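Justification of resources, computational component.

The compute hours requested in this renewal are based largely on the per-chain cost of generating structure records like the one below. Each record pairs the submitted sequence with a full structure-token output. That output is archived, and it is also reused by downstream analysis tasks.
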Amino acid sequence: MTAQVLIGLSGGVDSAVAAWKLRESGIDVEAVFMKNWEEDDTEEYCAAAADLADAQVICDLLDLRLHTINFSSEYWDRVFQVFLAEYSAGRTPNPDILCNREIKFRAFLDYAQTLGAERIATGHYAGIRFRGLAPELIQSEDRDKDQTYFLHRLDQQQIEAARFPLQGMTKQETREQARRIGLPVHDKKDSTGICFIGERRFQDFLANYIPAQPGPIVDSSGRKLGEHQGLAFQTIGQRTGLGIGGVSGSNEGPWYVVDKDMESGQVTVTQDRDHPALNVRVLEIEPPHWIAGLPPEERALKARIRHRQPLQDCRLEQDGDIYRVSFAAPQWAPAPGQSVVFYLGEVCLGGGIILKALRESAYPS
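The structure output for this chain reads:
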């Protein structure tokens, strides 16, 4: 192989336009379709089959060679088993973050390098710029679509080896470009659900791998309202799928999960969306991963605790091995296992996994 760049082609519009942009810029590019899940494939149905067919149509139209590679074993070992362990421990992980680090920018990068490619590319909405010789991960032009939240656990070596051709485009511009050049996926629905697994009835899917461990659902006064099937199936802030609607003596508003007790197996809920347990300013997190390898000198940063959340003013403080993030404004329903991702200007610095919410309310000046 002599291609300069291998692009991960999912069969969707983003990676298709990214591939077209690379080719139009004169770069020697070939495409790779990654299959990473086959646990519930059958002879009648394979979740990746339709996407592979779309990827082949795209390559035929763009005159690109298409490679296929199966990373199902790597995905199971490096991503899915961690995903299950986190849920079993009562946390709420984000598999897309781990999938990017371990599959799209590690297993795929290793594969590309064995073929002699200089770079890999993806259809992520993110950017790369260099400060001297050091690569920085920066936010996309389309702030609503920006995907740096999911890329924050990459390191400089992975970023330096990557290209993000959609860096300066919005999602609308991407779809319009796909339509103009005749790509049939220009109006294809965006993929959602678990990374490489897709849309599922989430609790039913988890139940295939995590046994039910029923326990009581109570309100803040301790009144039993119902029963859940396991702490793994509940997350802080959850308001659907609790099965306690129409509880006698309560108003008709929604219920929210505010606490999960791992020892007793008890889930506590409230109908008060402004409950103090759902609106917190201080989080304790794991030691952060820094893209640059070192923490920033500046402690007054911005951060988000979920994708598409507007950036929030915060301060990061370290006390020995303990890291705390103090926000200027309350953050709604942060859940252990989710990530806090830090920014300085448009640069994504890295982030850390939430361990617990604290009840302190002071924001350091």
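The mean pLDDT is 90. The two ends are 56 Å apart (CA to CA).
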